[in-house]
Amino acid sequence: MNKIIEKEFLTDNTVKFVFDAADVASQCKAGHFVFVHLNDTERLTLSVADADEKEGTITLVIEAVGEMSSKIANLNEGDEVLIEGPKGKVIDVENYNSVIAIGGAAGIAPLLMTVKELKKAGNKVYSVLVANSEEQMFFESDIKEFSDDLTIFTYDNQDEAGLEELVKSIISQESVQKAYLMGPKVLLKPAHNRLKELSLPMQATLW
Questions:
Q1: Percent of the chain with pLDDT over 70
Q2: Which residue, among 122, 105, 133, has the nearest Cα to 191 in the 3D structure?
Q3: How are beta strands 98-104 and 124-131 bridged, if at all?
Q4: All domains in the chain, ordered by first residue
C-alpha cells in the first residue's frame, strides 16, 4: 500500500497528492500513468505529474469531477491506497534546441514532468498554460522553474484566435523545432490546428 504524505488543494476541485511510492518513482518518466486502487473493484487512471526517485515519491493531480475521482480527492494525509504502475508510453524527449510545451486544464499536471525532462535534455522550453479562467490555473511556479518563458492564457479574457496567434508568435520568434500538447481537445483545439498548419513536429496527448 502507498501512503499519502502530502495533500494540497490547487483549485476548488483540483487536489495534489504526494504518495510514498519508491518502486513506482524509480521507474517513472514523462508520459507515464498509474492506476490508483481504492479497493479490489474501484480504480482511477491518473497521469504522473512528478516523480522524485531520491525521496521515493510520486505526485498525482486529481480533478474531483466524478464519483471515483471525488472519493480519492476526499482522502487525507496518512490514508493509503494501492498504486500500480508506471504504465503507458513515455514522452519522446531529446535535445531539439527549442520546444513549445502547451498544457490545458488537467493536462497541466503531466506537463510538469515533461518540461522538467525537456529542460534537463538541454532544450529552451517555452511553456503555455491554458485554462478557462485564472481560478482554474495551477502549477504556474512549478512549470516556470523549468521554462525559459511561461505564458498564461485564459479564455475568460481572450478568445480562440488569441491562442492561435500566441502559438504562432512563439514558434516564429523562437525557432521552435517541436511541440508538445497535453489536455482536453476542446481547450487546445486552436493551438493544435495552428501547429498542424505550420507543419511543426508535434507530440500530442489529447482527450
A1: 100
A2: 105
A3: parallel
A4: 2-87 (2.40.30.10), 98-206 (3.40.50.80)
